[in-house]
Amino acid sequence: MKSRLPFLIVTTWLALSLGAYSEKHPSVVEIRTRAEQGDAQAQFNLGLMYHKGQGVPKDAAEAVKWTRKAAEQEHADAQFNLGVMYDEGQGVPKDDAEAVMWYRKAAEQGHADAQYNLGVIYHEGQGVPQDDAEAVKWTRKAAEQGYAWAQFNLGVRYGEGQGVPQDDAEAVMWYRKAAEQGFAEAQNNLGLMYDEGQGVPQDDAEAVMWYRK
User: Fold this and answer.
1) Can you say whether the dihedral through the CA atoms of 83, 88, 89, 95 is positive or negative?
2) Three-class SS state of 127
3) Which of 35, 106, 122, 134 has the fewest Cβ atoms nearer than 10 Å?
């Protein structure tokens, strides 16, 4: 059997886009004023600006301060970012339990990145007991939102029978969803499934097409 790419563990990352922020949009002073008045979106943006050093000096502690204020107001992106900060020790001591808490808060609001990271955390047993069923649960939630990393990982789980019954047809379905988004690892695995006739009729032409992509 040819080698199949395994379950991918992606490093966590910050949602670092300020969206439409530009010179035509609120100034740093205006954003800070709104943030100090309790505007959660402004607090989130100010946290990002301190993280990136955009319009203000780069300052991890200030990034955490403003991100936390937004997170405590149930701002899902801020909760996710605060989870990343604790996960990676950015501006705070690394703390797996805190990371899990903030990821969970965002995940329960439907934040796909947080759901994916929570799935990875349960897969690894990082700050929580290792639990394949929980890993699959959160990975599936992200996959159903179209998150390609999660779709690929769910395909691997079905292919390997990790936390779910082994099912090549399900593996193919999830690989295809990710592959159609241009996810190279899923394209490779889908090519292998056609190459070997696992979960689909064996088809050299389809295998070559996906390998080529």
Assistant:
1) positive
2) coil
3) 134
Rounded to an integer, what distance in angstroms lies between the CA atom of residue 183 and that of residue 136?
Answer: 20
C-alpha separations of 148 from 180, 187, 200, 204, 213 in Å: 9, 11, 21, 25, 16
Asked whether the beta carbons of 185 and 179 are under 8 A apart, the reply is no
**Could you give the CA distance from residue 166 to residue 33 in angstroms, rounded to a whole number?**
55
113-154 residue pLDDT tens:
999 999 999 999 999 999 999 999 999 999 999 999 999 999
Q: Using CB atoms within 10 A of its CB, is residue 56 exposed (0-12), middle (13-18) or buried (19+)? A: middle
End-to-end CA distance of the chain: 21
Count the Cβ atoms, other than its own, within 10 Å of residue 17: 10
| Alpha carbons 50 and 153: distance in angstroms, whole number | 33
Task: Determine the Cα–Cα distance for residues 37 and 107; give it in Å rounded to an integer.
Answer: 27
**Entry pTM:** 0.88
13 pLDDT tier (thresholds 50, 70, 90):
low
Separation CA 49–CA 58 (nearest Å) = 8
Of 14, 92, 20, 88, the C-alpha closest to 52 is: 14
